[in-house]
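PROTEIN FOLDING TASK:
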Amino acid sequence: MATFCTYDIGNHIEYKNGQRILYSGAIPTSDPLVTMETVETILNLSIMASEVPLDAPWTAPSAAEWDAQMVTTWMDNNISSRDVRSLFTLAVQAVFSAELRDVSFLLCWLPGSSIWITEVK
């Protein structure tokens, strides 16, 4: 498979509540509570990802449970902040080009689509 460079040098832009905020790093940090829950969510998902064999995610110990729920169900049960839900929704929509209600939580672990395995810098 051919690859190409993606340039991401510079600041990122968060547009929220009619305001444009510049930030650097993996996630916006303008609100400490939102930052804390975002990092907690990423860490929880990364821990879950460590249990998933990427070449056969359907063999993971929780595969049946994850396949029985949509991503939106997982989000509703695990993310309380409206702003973190918004970031989470944006990430899922960017990777899958679909609404959260249309994506099985197990699908998130398939090779090439595993958006949860990340580093927070």
Helices lie at 32-49, 63-67, 71-78, 82-96.
